[in-house]
TrEMBL record:
Belongs to the Mrp/NBP35 ATP-binding proteins family. NUBP1/NBP35 subfamily. This is Cytosolic Fe-S cluster assembly factor NUBP1 homolog. [4Fe-4S] cluster 2 binds at C240, C243. Binds 4 [4Fe-4S] clusters per heterotetramer. Contains two stable clusters in the N-termini of NUBP1 and two labile, bridging clusters between subunits of the NUBP1-NUBP2 heterotetramer. One of its GO terms (cellular component) is nucleus. The keyword Cell inner membrane does not apply. The keyword NADP does not apply. GO terms for molecular function: 4 iron, 4 sulfur cluster binding; ATP binding; ATP-dependent FeS chaperone activity; metal ion binding. Component of the cytosolic iron-sulfur (Fe/S) protein assembly (CIA) machinery. Required for maturation of extramitochondrial Fe-S proteins. The NUBP1-NUBP2 heterotetramer forms a Fe-S scaffold complex, mediating the de novo assembly of an Fe-S cluster and its transfer to target apoproteins. Implicated in the regulation of centrosome duplication. Negatively regulates cilium formation and structure. Its cofactor is [4Fe-4S] cluster. It is found in: Cytoplasm; Nucleus. It comes from Spodoptera litura. Keywords: 4Fe-4S, ATP-binding, Cytoplasm, Iron, Iron-sulfur, Metal-binding, Nucleotide-binding.
Length: 317
């Protein structure tokens, strides 16, 4: 049996066992808590496997948000399209790690596609020649199927996604996470840190209620040593397409993301306006950048992408 310490009680299941810290023999053992937490079993072998699997992926970026509904998935898909169209030679992948609410297949217009498993792993679905996607949405029987999983199963899925998808050579991998800081985030950070995580991009809207949660997200990054590439403020302004009046639909009562970023010394990458055509494109799975290439939202997005690319390339050179 592996991992049985010299001073172990009789019938110790061993630190590597699934029963570590939980078997009846563990009762009263001074190491029971540490074994039950999994910390005694040593580094997860998947960390090395993931490091090797992702060795052909130059830049890995986590997309985070404190609150749900602030547009994190929308922003991820837009960034994917913007990175892929900025340089047709670059290959971009999106991993939809929102296990319980995968929305990328719909937003990227590839709902109903199948992923294929071959000797080299799962092949992602290609949205365009140089933009690929992997999502649990492709593995569900129907788009309406609910995934009701506890933490360990979700962690297993993240591990599998990171270790078994055959992305090929990628310049950028964007990882769309669920809102908040939950099991999926911890797993993703645990596995990606040694594979070389460039950092996190945090999406928010201007209201205080969203910014409060962003502060928690930034603290999460600090605690886990994840660099913050910057904050993106979404739905910051609405410009009426008819009269051109500018309105703040979600007013920033406390100075919005700009104030928060200057207080916390994190870069504000830019603001995306609220655009009803953008929302419609996402619902229909159409590429907004192609539909309205001259819109203020696309200009803002391209400037944000330039900053992300500059940061990633500066830190890797
Ligand atoms: N800039 C924008 N302009 C107009 N609509 C937007 C914009 N950003 C997002 N939306 C719309 O807001 C809704 C929520 O966006 P989205 O699903 O991306 O949020 P989310 O933060 O990923 O949510 P969750 O984390 O709960 O899945 C969608 O209908 C989307 O089309």
């Amino acid at each position: 049996m592996s991992g049985v310490p010299d001073n172990a009680p009789e019938h110790c299941p061993g630190t590597q066992s699934d029963d570590a810290g939980k078997a009846s023999a563990c009762a009263g053992c001074p190491n029971q808590n540490i074994c039950a937490s999994g910390a005694a079993s040593g580094p997860d072998p998947a960390i090395q496997i993931i490091k090797e699997r992702l060795s052909n992926v130059k830049h890995k970026i986590l997309i985070l948000s404190g609150k749900g509904g602030v547009g994190k998935s929308t922003v991820t898909s837009l960034l994917g399209h913007a990175l892929a169209s900025r340089n047709p030679e670059a290959n971009v992948g999106i991993l939809d790690a929102d296990i319980c609410g995968p929305s990328q297949p719909r937003v990227l217009g590839v709902r109903g596609e199948q992923v294929h498993n071959s000797g080299s792993g799962w092949s992602p679905v290609y949205v365009t020649d140089n933009l690929s996607l992997m999502s649990i949405g492709f593995l569900l029987g129907s788009p309406d199927d609910a995934v009701i999983w506890r933490g360990p199963k979700k962690n297993g899925m993240i591990k599998q996604f990171l270790s078994e998808v055959d992305w090929g050579d990628l310049d950028y991998l964007l990882i769309d996470t669920p809102p908040g800081t939950s099991d999926e985030h911890l797993s993703a950070v645990q596995y990606l840190t040694s594979a070389g995580l460039d950092g996190a991009l945090v999406v928010t809207t201007p209201q205080e209620v969203a910014l409060l949660d962003v502060r928690k997200e930034l603290q999460f990054c600090t605690k886990l040593g994840v660099p913050v590439l910057g904050v993106l403020e979404n739905m910051s302004l609405f410009v009426c397409p008819n009269c051109k009046t500018r309105s703040e639909i979600f007013p920033a009562t406390t100075g919005g993301a700009a104030q928060m970023c200057s207080e916390l010394s994190v870069p504000l990458l830019g603001s995306l306006p609220l655009d009803p055509i953008l929302a419609r494109c996402c619902d229909d799975g159409r590429d907004f950048l192609q539909e309205l290439p001259n819109s203020p939202a696309v200009a803002a997005l391209r400037s944000i992408v330039d900053k992300i690319v500059a940061t990633c390339e500066n830190t890797s050179s």
